[in-house]
Structure formats: C-alpha cells, structure tokens
Amino acid sequence: MNRRLKRVAVAAAILATLIGLRLALEPREGPRPHFRVDGAERTRVSEQVTAGLLDPSALDQRLGDAKVLLIGEEHFTNEIVAYTLGLLEKLSAHGRPVVLLLELPQHTQPTIDRFMNDGREDDLRGIWRDGDALPYQRLVQWARQSRPTVRRVVAMDENRRRVVVMRALLTDTRNESMSTAILKARREEPDALVVAYGGQFHMLRSGRYLYDVANRESVGSRLRRAGIPPAELRVILVSGADRFPIAETWTRPGAIAAESPLGDLPYEAFFRTHVFGAAKARELFDYFVNVGPLTASAP
Q: Do residues 102 and 267 touch, judged by C-beta distance below 8 A?
C-alpha cells in the first residue's frame, strides 16, 4: 500500500512540475486595445464613414480579379452568415467556379462529401452531431444547391483532439493547417475562386493575434509568404453593431475599403483583441463590413 502511495505521489509531483513548466512558458496575452473617440475626432470619423461607405451588396463587383478570398466572421451570428450567403450567391452568379473552405473539423469531411453527393439531411445533421463544429449548416446547404458552380466544400480546421494537444504543447498549428488547405485548393483548382470562411483573427491579411508568437501568424500573412500575390488575395472582415470600437460612429450597415481614409485609423478602431505586427487598419483587411445588429445563432 505504501509503495502504491509513493508511486502516486511521485506521479503527482511530476505532473505538477510539468503543469508549472507549461504555465511558466505560456506566452503573455497582448494588452487589450483601447480606442475612444470624442468631440471633434468623433465627428471626423463619422464623416469619414459616411463619405467612404460602400453598399455591401455591390462589394462583389470589386472582387473580380481575386483568386483567393478570405472572409473573417464573428462566430455564432445569424446576420453574418446571411451576408456571406448573399455575397457568395453574387460571386457564383458570374459563372466562376468556387471552392469553399470552412472552419470545420477535418473529421467532418467524409460526411460533407456524402451530403454534397446525396443531399440527405441526416448526413447534414451528422456534421454537427458531435457538437464540436461551428453552425455553418446554411453555408453547406447553399453549396450543395449551387452545384456544379461550387466544386467542393473543404473542412479546413483541425480536429478538436489535435487542437487540445497542440495547445498543451504551446504549438497552435491551426492557421498553418488552414493555409495549407487553401494553397492545395488553389493548386488543384487554378480557374476557381477559392473562398475561405472562418473566424476574423484567422483570416487577417497580416499580423499575429493575441500572442506575439510565430504560431499566431494569420492565414493571410502565411498565404502571402507562400507566394500568393497581394493583388490576388482579398480579405473581408464582417462584424456588426457593438462588436467593434468605432461602431458607435458607424450606425448604418455597409462596407468600407481599406484604401479609404478609414484605413489610416489605428487597427484598435476595429478590434478589441491585440494584434502584433500591425499599426494601421489597412494592414489587416481590404474591406470591413458592418451588417448592423446581430442575433445569436444556435451553438
């Protein structure tokens, strides 16, 4: 009995040491951005928003020369998915084939393929049966309804078990996995528009988010480093009322282009999470869309 207790104590001590070492090596999260506008500055920003606002429904006309389109979303919102469906509908209406990559675990790929082939709702429900996939059902349904324009739907995220292990080892590989999937789709379907849809901070054009470590390098940055020409890559970030700092001066739904004066605002005007390696908003996106009030979708 004493021998067994000693083994347990030694194992507990080793485990405690490993946990302590991991916590000591954990990178420090960057400071939360602070951006406040008041008085004349508030008026100036509001005027810039009004002058530079684009109709979101016409944004597709500006994407004609894109080869890869990254769409960054706020998770679990109905309106952002609806906006994206409208944009995809317009892009596919031009007759250009599309490959759609989604932030879904890779283990869902066989089920996605079955649904794309047979359209059985039970297959569709099976993608979300385990409860570890984002609520992208409407996007997958649209993709099947839009065949053969939509050639493939690709689950580009890592499985939850791998995510947990990689984070325990302080090596987050999700952005690299997403980038690899996007580059593969680009090689295999050179005539198609490759659209990747996932969380905002994955899809940034540049920078590292939350932590200043290499594994937090954004997908957009990795794609450019891998040789995707800047002119062929477009990044659209989609948010809504009260979700980003200058929302109080931007009350009407619409989109702004990074080439406008608003692109010169510090990135903190658009994000509440620290982004390393970027100063101006235009470094992180080509277009920022405000869809207005948001409602939560089912998890």
A: no
H/E stretch holding 113: helix 109-118
Q: What is the pLDDT along the chain (299 residues), one digit of tens a residue?
A: 677 777 767 776 776 676 676 767 678 888 888 888 788 888 888 898 989 899 777 788 899 889 999 999 999 999 999 999 999 999 998 888 999 999 999 999 999 999 999 999 998 998 888 778 999 999 999 999 999 999 999 999 999 999 999 988 889 999 999 999 999 999 999 999 999 999 999 999 999 999 999 999 999 999 999 999 999 999 999 999 989 999 989 989 999 999 999 999 999 999 999 999 999 999 999 999 999 999 998 76
> 23 near 230, Cβ under 8 Å?
no
Q: How far is CA 205 from CA 28, 68, 69, in A?
A: 23, 12, 11
Cβ neighbors of 287 (< 8 A, separation 6 or more) are: 54, 59, 62, 234, 235, 236, 237, 255, 256, 257, 258
Asked, for residue 14, whether it belongs to a domain, the answer is no
Domain-located, residue 23: no
pTM: predicted TM-score of the whole model, two decimal places: 0.94
Domain count, the chain: 1
- Bridge partners of 110, per DSSP, are none
212 within a domain of the structure (yes/no): yes
Count the Cβ atoms, other than its own, within 10 Å of residue 211.
17
**How do 208-209 and 275-276 pair as beta strands?**
antiparallel
Q: Tell me the three state secondary structure of residue 151.
A: strand
Closest CA to 271 of 89, 35, 83, 38: 35
Structural domain includes residue 16: no
